[in-house]
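Hello,

Our lab assistant flagged a job as stuck in the queue for most of the afternoon. It eventually completed. Since we weren't sure the result was trustworthy after the delay, we are filing this so someone can double-check. Below is the sequence as submitted and the structure that was eventually returned. Let us know if re-running is recommended.
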Amino acid sequence: MKRIGKRLLFWVTVLLFAGSLVYWLLTVPSHPAELFRAIPGNSSVISMHRDLANRLEDVAANPLTLSFARAAGLPDDAFSTLQDEETIQMLDWLASDESVIAYVPELGITGEDAWVFSSWIGGRAQILRWRSGELDEALRPMAIDAGWPAWLYPEPVDETGRYLALALVDGMVVGCVARDVAAIGEVLACYNGALPSMRERRDKQDMVSRVLSSTWDDRGWFTPWVPPDSDWYLSDIFVEYALAGDGHIEGAFLVNLPFDLPSQGSELPVPPVSATGPNPIISGVAAGPGLRVLMDPEWYDRTSEFLGLDREASPAAMSLAVLDDSFSGRLKTMKMPTLAIGWRRPADVTAEALVMRLLDMVNAEWNLGLVPVRETAGDMPYWIIDSIGGLNWYAALGRRERFVIAEFNDWMMMYSNLGGFQKLLSGTSPETGGVDGMVQVPDPAALAYLRTDLVTGGKAIRGALTAYTLMLMLNDAAGSRETRQIINEIKAWIEALGPLETLELWMTTVPGSAKVHFSSGIQ
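-- returned structure --
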C-alpha cells in the first residue's frame, strides 16, 4: 500500500512539474509597454490598437483606413485579401491583443521611409518558434545576427517595392514594411537596446504612458513637421480616435500655448452668412481667445485694428465661409467659389463709417482708389466696392466681380464677388438674424469652430491646384517638376479623404493648453 502511495505521489509530482514547465513556457505575462522596445526612436507617427483581429471588418470598411491605404500606395483591394479563412486565423493569432504601428521616416541602410509594427501575442510566440518549419514553407528564413528568428515574404507587398519582414521575440511578433529587405535587423537592434527605441527615449515617456493608459481602442501621437527655418515649435500631438464601420472617426489632441487662456470659453456667436442658408464648402467662427490661437499675435493686433474689432466692449469675433457651387461667382470669366468673411461691428461705430475707415486703410496701403457704392436689399444696406484708381488689378475687374460689404444686425459681412452675393439674395427677403444650419457648434463653450465639406471642398481645391500646376508647366516645366510632384501628392490625399465627406474641428480650453477636437465621417 505504501508502494502504491509513493508511486502515485511520484507521478503526481511529475505531472505537476510538467504542467508547470508547459505553463512557464507558454505563458508570458502581458506587458504592452514592451511593444515600444521594437519601435525606432525616430518614428514620427505612432498608433496603438486594441484587438485589431476581431475589429478588422469594421476597421477595413472605414473610409479613413482606405484613405491612408491609398495614400501609402496600397491598392484599393488591399483589405479584401485579408478576408480569407487562413488570413483571419493568422490575424487572430497575431493581432488579438495590443498592437503598435509606426511610421519611420528613415530606416535601414537605404535611409528610406518604412512602416514598423509590434504585436503582443504572449506564449504564442514560443509556439510559433516550435512550428518554425511551417513558417519556413510560407516565408523565407533570414540570416539576421540579432539573436531572434526572422522571415521575409519573398514578393513585394505594394507597388512601390516594399517587402514585409517579421521576427519573433519574447511574447511579441515584430516586423517592418520597407524597401530595404534587411531593415528588420534595425528593428531588432532597437528591441535589443543596440539602437534607440521609443521605449528608451526619455522625452517620449509621457506619450507612451498616455497611450498605455488610454481607454480608447485606437490612440497614438504624431510629431508635426515644422520647416527648419520656422520660429514655431510644435510638440508631439496626442490623439484618441475611434475607427468604426459606419465611416466615422473622432478624437482630440492638446496644443501647448505660450500664453494663458481662460478656463472656460464663452458661447460662440452665430454669424449671418446669408438669408438663404447655403451649404458651405467651409464654414467657421472664432471669438475672443480663439482668435489669438489661430493668428500670430502681431496679425491678431493688425487684423483687430484693420476691421475695427472692439475687444473691450464686446468679444472680438470673426467668421469665414466658402460657399458651394450654387453660389459661386467669377474672376476674369473663371468660375470661383464665393468667399464670405464676417466680423462683429463695434457698438459705437456705424456700418457706413466702418466701411469708409476700412477702405481708407486699404487705399493708404495699396493705393487702389477704392470707393463704396451704397445700395439696399429690403432693409439691409450693402456697399459695392468700386475703384477709381485707374490702372490696377482691381479696377480691371468687371462689376459682378467686385467685393461687397453688407450689414447684418451687429455683423459686417464681406463677399468676394457681387455675382455670388446677388445669388444669395435672389428671390428672398434678407433677414438680420443668424441662419440655421450655417454654424452648428458641437460644444457651446468652444473658442473656435471650423467645418469642411471634403467632397465639394476637395473638388474645388483640386481644381485650383490643377490650374496652378498648368501655370507652372507653362512658365517653367523643368524647374517646377518637384513643386508639381508635391502638388500631385496633395491632390492624392485630398481625393483619398473625400469618402469621409465632412471634417469638423473645434477648440476648448484645459489648464495651460488648448484642446482641439475633431470629428470626421459620413453625417
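-- support follow-up --
The delay was a queue issue, not a problem with the job. The result is valid. Residues 10-14, 16-26, 427-437 have pLDDT under 50 and may be disordered. The chain is about 30% helix and 25% strand.
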